User: What shape does this take?
Amino acid sequence: MSLTFIAANLIIVIAFTVRSWTGFGGALLCVPLLAQFYDLKFVVPVECTFEVILSVILVPTLFRDVIRSAFSPLLAGSLVGSVIGVYFLQSFASGILEVVLGVVIIIIALNLWRDSRRPPRRLPPSRTLGLVAGLTGGIIGGMFGTPGPIYVAYLSFHGLDKHAMRATLMVLFAIDYTWRLGLFAYEGLYTLKEFKFALSLVPALLVGIVVGNLLHRRVDDRSFRNVVNVLLLFAGVLCFF
Assistant: This one.
């Protein structure tokens, strides 16, 4: 077993502990770190496979907590945005786009951190803003596999508690990532090679799911939001390397 493969397993355990715990963060950590060892166009479809597997395991228990008024416009926008993003990954992805992504994520994280120091605001989800957030997240997801920051920013703005945010995100990801995996296959970015590599890392994925679920039950809303903010800042910085 090579050191690179051992590192990949450790990355998956950490990334999907966070993903299972918070409802997002798998791609935020997995893609930039795995890209230090493997090509980005290989990593993004592989990570997408993990998201689909995770969704199949966890989503059936989450439907009742989904906030449908926020979920529907995000999903509609993301399905269209993913088509655009996958096209960019296939044709135009570059280091400049990664830097832009990093700047956007850091700005979002700083705004959420500022808002977390104020009294909670619970505003009704805007369908138009949800469509824009979904479209933007879909484009970024198609290019880098990291739509989470945009979706989290939109849902956090509406003051959802950790259970509602986690459920809404994970059901959204279940559909979003399955759709995107089909697009990757259509564009020739997802082949038997990516599928076999993803399967070899499934044990690490399962460890992350178990640990993340245990953490989710034991962590309060304030700590949860602090983790979200730290993850966003960390993901933004990683985009510069």
About this structure: Residues 76 and 131 are 7 Å apart (CA to CA). The two ends are 27 Å apart (CA to CA). The chain has one domain: 3-238.
